[in-house]
Design brief:
- The protein has 343 residues and is mainly α.
- It has one domain: Farnesyl Diphosphate Synthase (Orthogonal Bundle).
- Helices cover 75% and strands 1% of the residues.
- The protein has helices at residues 3-16, 22-44, 49-61, 66-75, 85-106, 118-122, 124-142, 149-169, 177-203, 208-235, 238-241, 247-250, 256-264, 270-276, 284-296, 298-321, 326-339, and strands at residues 111-112, 115-116.
- It has a two-stranded antiparallel ribbon.
- Helix 2 crosses helix 4 (66-75) and helix 4 (66-75) crosses helix 9 (177-203).
- The longest helix is centred in the middle third of the chain and has 28 residues, at 208-235.
- The radius of gyration is 20 Å and the shape is globular.
- The two termini are 20 Å apart.
- Bound molecules: farnesyl diphosphate (FPP) and magnesium ion.
- Farnesyl diphosphate binds at residues 95, 98-99, 102-103, 107, 131, 135, 157, 160-161, 164, 188-189, 229, 233, 243, 247.
């Protein structure tokens, strides 16, 4: 990907945050360009042209680069030019990309970031092994950062995998389905979002209290981000998403709206509940019908309320500990971005 494309992509997300201080916007854009260059280098460092092509596939295809942006914003609470900031941002995107290699295998996804998924193009085994390589590469990078980076990255990776396994296995017999859902999304999504912020702030030498507050903000933002993802799976087109619409229903993943329908017991959701109770997932007409019913269901509004609650908690983590200024405003605006996500 050219630096120009990277700059445009960076600008699209940072610009939507409407930061008033242009210096901040410029620094973030410059940082994202460096991240882009370094990500491409990482793929080439695979030292084997075929592995480099596989690990570079999703990196080149793009994505929002939310996690590197968060790392760079976290670093704004210290010295954003400190050594290790860019590497920390790269590390967060490498872990994210590794998780997508694995996730797309589990979801049997055909597309990701608007291109064929790694599993669709090279098969499941290659997708998993190359995902492992990306995770190993991230671990290698963490060893070059401040001493906290290795245990923090290890913890987040452990949570990512635990969350995904717990989602796959489902709640225990006596476990509350809703708390299981929140545990899963905290682990599989929020852990890395939280790490991205914290690691940027730590590399930049921000005060411990600020690093901790950013981590708490990231945990809440991450849960809200995943709820938004669940909602978009129902409401957005495949073209907007760059991945298939209705995938959660197709592979019987208990997304938040689905859980709220199943637990709600509302008589008007009876047909939908019957469709959703198929453990094999849905395809064809039944999939379309379930999507239509889910879109109309009150569970979508209730999921939005739960997302807004998380965003309010994210905002209060900011208000409790962070100094006011442009980076604060950008993080506050990110809550609006998540609430209004379209892709
Ligand atoms: C997308 O979820 C996937 C994640 C948030 C992380 C998945 C984690 C793993 C597969 C564990 C393995 C991780 C590593 C680092 C090896 P989703 O399916 O809800 O969202 P989607 O709609 O984007 O697919
Ligand atoms: Mg998925």
């Amino acid at each position: 990907m050219s630096a120009l494309t990277a700059r445009r992509r960076g600008r699209s997300l940072i610009t939507r945050l409407a930061v008033r201080e242009k210096g901040l916007e410029r620094r973030i854009l410059r940082g994202l360009e460096q991240v882009e260059t370094r990500l491409q280098e990482c793929a080439r460092e695979a030292d084997d042209p075929r592995l480099a092509a596989v690990v570079g596939h999703l990196i080149t295809a793009g994505g929002k680069r939310l996690r590197p942006l968060l790392t760079l914003l976290g670093a704004e609470f210290g010295d954003p030019r400190a050594p290790g900031v860019i590497e920390a941002a790269v590390l967060s995107e490498l872990v994210h990309t590794a998780s997508l290699h694995h996730d797309d295998v589990m979801d049997e996804a055909l597309t990701r970031h608007g291109v064929s998924s790694v599993n669709a193009r090279w098969g499941n085994t290659v997708a998993v092994r190359s995902g492992n390589w990306l995770l190993a590469k991230a671990a290698q990078m963490s060893a070059g950062l401040t001493p906290e980076a290795v245990p923090l990255q290890a913890d987040a990776s452990e949570r990512l995998v635990r969350g995904q396994v717990r989602e796959l296995v489902g709640p225990a017999f006596d476990e509350n389905h809703m708390s299981h859902y929140f545990d899963v999304v905290s682990d599989k999504s929020a852990s890395l979002i939280s790490l991205s912020l914290r690691l940027g702030a730590i590399q930049a030498g921000a005060p411990a209290r600020v690093c901790d507050a950013l981590a708490v903000y990231g945990e809440h933002l991450g849960v809200a981000f995943q709820i938004a993802d669940d909602l978009l799976d129902v409401t957005s087109s495949s073209a907007d998403l760059g991945k298939e619409q209705g995938k959660d229903l197709a592979v019987a993943v208990a997304s938040l709206p689905v859980l709220l329908v199943l637990d709600g017991g509302r008589p008007e959701d009876e047909e939908l509940r019957t469709l959703l109770s198929d453990p094999a997932g849905l395809s064809g007409e039944r999939h379309l019908r379930a999507l239509t019913l889910l879109r109309r269901s009150e569970a979508m509004d209730r999921a939005r309320v739960l997302m807004d609650e998380r965003l309010a908690r994210a905002r209060s983590a900011l208000a409790d500990a962070l100094p006011s200024g442009a980076p604060y405003e950008a993080l506050d605006a990110l809550c609006d971005f998540v609430a209004n996500r379209t892709a």
